[in-house]
Amino acid sequence: MRMTVHWAARLGRPRLVFLAAALALSLGPLSAQPVPAASSLPSLGDVDGMTLADERRLGDRIARDIYRDPDYLDDPLLGDYLQRLWQPLLAAARSRGEISPELAERMAWELMISRDRRVNAFALPGGYFGVHLGLIGVTDNSAELASVLAHELAHVSQRHIARMLSRQDRMAPWVLGAMILGALAARSNVDAANAAIVGSQAVAAQTQLNFSRDMEREADRIGFTVLTGAGFEGEGFVSMFEKLQQASRLNDDGAFPYLRSHPLTSERMADMRARLPQGGPGGASGPLVSRDPAAPSPVNQGILNLSLPSDGKLPAAVLPPAGLHALMAARARVLAENGPDRLRAWMASGQGAQARPGDRYAAAWSAHRLGQPEVAERLARQLRNEVDADVAWVADALWMEVVMAPGLQRTAAQQAELARLRDLKLAAGDRASLLLGAQAAMATGEPRPAASRLQTWVVNRPGDALAWQSLGAVYRLQGQTLRAVRADAEAHVAMRDYAGAQERLRAAQSLPAAQRAADPVEMAVVDARLRDVQALLRQAEQAERDSR
Prior knowledge:
Elements: H1 19-24, H2 52-68, E1 72-73, H3 76-95, H4 101-106, E2 110-114, E3 121-124, E4 128-132, H5 133-138, H6 142-157, H7 160-167, H8 173-185, H9 190-198, H10 213-229, H11 235-250, H12 257-261, H13 266-274, H14 324-336, H15 340-349, H16 357-369, H17 373-386, H18 392-403, H19 412-427, H20 431-443, H21 448-460, H22 465-477, H23 481-494, H24 498-509, H25 513-518, H26 520-546
Parallel strand pairs: 2-4
Antiparallel strand pairs: 1-2, 3-4
Helix pairs in contact: 2-8, 3-6, 3-10, 3-20, 6-10, 6-11, 14-16, 15-16, 16-17, 17-18, 19-20, 20-21, 20-22, 21-22, 22-23, 23-24, 23-26, 24-26
């Protein structure tokens, strides 16, 4: 494969432009070179001049700008679903020695979602990974989606990105980062960005950052063992390859960037087929993880947790129930679509008596996005009555989202049901339920329980920007302006926007004296956090100066 990073322009509006091309600005053509096996890798702190700290800093700088881009999407439901695939993969890689304790601690291992409807995924320096909504929407099951994540994980665990960047000895990592940020800054002017890309020496030969064939084969092999070790069927790797190959034969319209960035070969596909157990899925090389769809599945809650039992095997029932993927794929497809014609088509096709759960979900979510709350509520209510028990919570969440639409006048029964589900969601332990419960708490005019739960959440997960934003909204509804402004500042810190955080903390210090005096403890926290943020800002500015 080659690594493509494309946070795309969509619907004719200027958006974040070719990050891959920005990376390629400093890279000449890359020849295929052998890559040492994992057992012979050099120490993590040194990859031909690019240290682990260098790589992480480069990734952090890229991530900071991705957070600010309009195509960046923090959808709690999809985010939790991806984490239910991602965390078992990380744990399996750790248990097999692909991720050392140092690498686990120092890399970000963070997934980012793009609204782009094209089929793509990518890895960035420092352990950041991107997933397009189009990839989620086109996959048929969780194993196919997990196979792509496992492959990209292998690129990072083997430090392919750092090795590749280190080969370009004419430019230091900070120069590469500056060029990436320059391309990001050009997103408001696509013509200027394209001119910069065309004018680069690297794009004369290629417009993407290319992994060598050896790196691709290694990522396939390691990705496959990580996928099956996490409990997913290895068939997912093969069926995903077949799906992509079929797409490449039928069209080349740019809808599948993954086909260009990850070129498939008959050799690689045959290798993956040969690795399937002879007894079929679940054979001698089958999953370590038992599948109990009724059991809860842990999700990442802002802190990477790769601890394993003493026997090295994963705990049972960490994989999502089979019916969940169809609903999440439907959500991804609708979120990625901005053309009303397709949304109307999905809304119509999902209203039939024989509609499948995924189609019903897409119909309800399409009606919601089209501003037809009554139709959306009716379809969501139907879905609640049709889905299996192990995914009923997803149908409940959809119903809550559509019933809280501004244009819907809730009946007394709907209000009572919303309050019931609100309390259930706030009591749950997952991120999506908490944030949805907080939204329902505000919609029903009872924010106090949400404030308490969100406070506990952000104490343990201070990097959750959306949770801080929700907490700020809850505080405002309660009339606690000082706390609301501080929560806004913490959201900026979580997105590494230290200048924005400083501005909000100074705004908190400038509130009327009565508001500041009413909460002296919070005011002391504001003062302390301002000093912390100013120190972080100075460090960031010093790093920028040092790079010049």
